Every structure is written in C-alpha cells, then in structure tokens.
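Predict the 3D structure for this chain.
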Amino acid sequence: MTRKRTDYTEARNYYIKGERNEYPTLQDIATEFNYSLSTLRKQAANEGWLSKRKERINLKEIIKMRKDFMGKAIKLSRLSSNSISAADFLILKIKEELSDIKKGIKPYNIHIASKQIWTLNQALKLAKLSQNILDEIENGYMSPLDDDNYL
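Done. Predicted structure below.
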C-alpha cells in the first residue's frame, strides 16, 4: 500500500502570502492545518518558504513605492506644464507692453525696461527648469529606484 503524500500547497500559500499584512508563523500553520511542526519546518526549509515570503514582501513595498512615486510624478508634470504656461503668459504680457511703448501709449523708462528684463529672465529660468523636469520624467530618469541609498 502506497502512502499518500501530504499536500502543503494551502499551508505554503498562507505562509508566503499571509493575510492582510499579517504573516503567520510555522507554529500557527501547524496548529491550523493539524500538521506536525517538525515536518512542516523541514518542508518549509526544503522549499524556501521564508525567502519566498521575503521576496513577496519586498515586491509589495516596491510596487507601493512606485505607485506613490507615479502620483507625485503626475503632479510634478502638471506643475511643470503650468509653470511653462505661466512663463509664456509673462512673455506675452511683456510683448504687449513693448507694443504699447512702440505705439506711444505707454512711456518708455529705465524702470520698465529693468522690470521687463528681470521678468523675462525669471520666465526663461522657470520654463527651462520645468522642461528639464518633464524631460526627466518622460525619459525615465526620475525613478524611486534611482537612489542607490534606499537599498
């Protein structure tokens, strides 16, 4: 008469996956499934249950980190696009002001010119910075895994 091998699939899955971020001990599983603790320990060691559990936990953390990052990246890209729009608006207003000066509607003076130059410089810096951020997001350079220190 051949002996039927015990199927540890359900116990293995419960140990590795856990339940709602709670992970049972081998003692808990042995009690719940009515297995011998020593036999269950041997089975778990032979099949590498602990390393599989650790891999799963690490993967869940990476997935969560990426989801969090993507939410921030989307917000950052929107902010960058808005900054570029703001820079375009400032440049448009300066062009309108220059047009008014050329038409004689507004008098030219050095203070207006200084203000315009400063505003243009700020708008260009804002546009360049925003475009660089968008390029980094688009090209995949901004990633939660780019920082080696996290590991």
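Confidence is low (pLDDT under 50) at residues 147-151.
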